[in-house]
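Extended Data, panel c. Modelled sequence:
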Amino acid sequence: MENDGDLLKKVPHELKAMQDVALVRTFSPVDDARSFLVIARTKLKDSMSAYDQGQFGAAKKLALEAYLEGFEPLEAALRAKSADLVVETEGLFTNFRAQVEASAAPEQAAKALAAALQGLDTVETTMNQTNKSLGFGFGLLSSSSIVFREGL
């Protein structure tokens, strides 16, 4: 295992703080999926609250942060399970941000928000699923190889 100094030389300059290196060492997208989804949901809701209060700059910023800090870190792990869901969810975030940036009627923005939140529910369900057919297939293959190897 590399020491932190060697790791620091390989990461982008934005991650030079030792606490960031510690975070990188402990990060697991699958284990942390729920945390990222909480961030995404919270920032989306905060964005809508800011929008409703006429704080359009803050609403735009929070909508973008919801994607960058809440969903984007999950994309690679989610893409392995469902590439189509990644594209669909990105579209839901884009639609919500477009409503906010266009200063759409609050009802339209709220509808886009509801769709994005529902999309995140689907993401959470997908991230929590295990591929049972792979588990069964792997077990069958492993058992068969033992039977053939032992000549039973």
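The chain has eight helices and no strands. This feature is highlighted in the accompanying rendering.
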